[in-house]
Write a structure and sequence with these properties.
Number of helices: 13
Order of helices and strands: EHEHEHEHEHEHEHHEHEEEEHHHEH
CATH class of the largest domain: Alpha Beta
Structural class: alpha/beta
Number of strands: 13
CATH topology of the largest domain: Dihydrodipicolinate Reductase, domain 2
CATH architecture of the largest domain: 2-Layer Sandwich
Helix content: 40-55%
Distance between the termini: 39 Å
Number of domains: 2
Strand content: 15-25%
């Protein structure tokens, strides 16, 4: 297959390495807004470096989009109009209107678009989903998610990121839907700024918490922070009437039990000894989800060839974005917000472009 990759930054370079090694990829071509960066990444992986325009003139079989968010919608539309199956890192666009407009082009063209929610391909989350669907937890009643970055992103990134709910917690919102099979109906979100001033200047929060209500009365909490020097920490707990499962809890989790040997707290005579060997925490998302990133691209190559169904269509990104938008409204106005409120605004955008899947009529 002839694969085009747009974007040669951190995640783009990772994808280039994955694609270059995949047996189904016969030729890889890389483009970036910075031609020098494109040439460096291409040279490191035996690929060709081209301009974006030249890339689309190269008889590609599929396109992988890992560029800056602001370029996503335009590249998605160009790929759809060219009949190219495309994989795009989340988000599709900078806002709800742009997301719906991009999806409208994809649907009008009957094109293939897979969205990069890589946690769906992580073995732990997949095992939790299977266990829940098999009834091993009994009736699910509570879900808890944690997303903590070791350090904040560069100041220039924050105003373009969409904010903590759209940029970071959107992964948790997607997983809540995907794992439970239930829609999120209401959110109550709060956010604080106790770190660098550039978060507040961008209208963002550096630490956030959300209480979410799902269909069937399932309750969930999601927390996130840009300041967690102990290490990268992404976890999920699913509690049911019969059992409780945790994803992301292991020797590299930056979570120290107070009862561990050598801890200054008083010993708990009923606590089990902490004998598990602790390893260095994950430094970041690429290291933690490396296998998941590779698996989702491998799946995309099959999707592009028509041998597998699309596991994460554009409407999935839209549904998660609607929850993030509801969180922004909740934080700003200090009240619970029904996701249906945001759907109403989304319908207005969708009606303007002739309707989009994922927005209730």
């Amino acid at each position: 297959m002839r694969i085009g990759l747009v974007g040669a930054g951190r995640i783009g370079a990772f994808h280039a390495a994955t694609l270059a090694k995949h047996p189904d990829v016969g030729e890889l071509m890389v483009a970036d807004a910075d031609p020098l960066r494109a040439r460096e990444v291409a040279a490191a992986h035996g690929a060709s470096a081209l301009s974006v325009d030249a890339l689309f003139d190269s008889r590609l079989d599929a396109l992988v989009i890992a560029s800056a968010t602001a370029a996503h919608a335009g590249l998605i539309a160009k790929a759809a109009q060219a009949g190219l199956p495309a994989f795009c890192e989340k988000p599709l666009a900078l806002d709800l209107a742009g997301t719906i407009a991009a999806l409208a082009v994809v649907e009008a063209a009957g094109a293939v678009l897979q969205i990069g929610f890589q946690r769906r391909f992580d073995p732990g989350y997949r095992a939790a989903r299977a266990a829940l669907r098999a009834g091993r937890l009994g009736r699910l009643h509570t879900v808890r998610t944690v997303s903590s970055d070791p350090s904040p992103p560069p100041a220039a990134y924050v105003p373009l990121s969409g904010g903590l709910y759209r940029d970071c917690l959107i992964h948790d919102f997607d997983l809540l839907r995907w794992i439970t099979g239930r829609e999120i109906t209401e959110v109550y979100a709060i956010g604080t700024n106790v770190g660098a001033d550039f978060f507040r200047a961008a209208g963002d929060a550096d630490t956030a918490a959300v209480v979410l209500t799902l269909e069937d009365g399932i309750l969930a909490t999601s927390t996130a922070t840009r300041y967690h020097a102990a290490g990268y920490d992404v976890r999920m707990e699913l509690a049911g009437t019969e059992d409780q499962f945790a994803v992301g809890l292991g020797p590299r989790t930056p979570l120290r039990p107070a009862e561990a040997p050598g801890a200054p707290a008083e010993r708990d005579p009923y606590a089990e000894p902490a004998t598990a060997r602790r390893l260095s925490p994950w430094p970041g998302f690429l290291e933690r989800f490396a296998s998941a990133y590779r698996a989702e691209l491998a799946t995309f190559l099959h999707v592009a060839r028509g041998t597998e169904p699309n596991p994460c269509e554009g409407r999935e990104a839209l549904r998660a974005l609607l929850v993030a938008e509801a969180c922004e409204t909740s934080r700003r106005e200090g009240r619970p917000v029904a996701v249906a409120e945001v759907e109403s605004a989304a319908r207005t955008y969708a009606d303007a472009v002739g309707g989009v899947k994922g927005v209730p009529a």
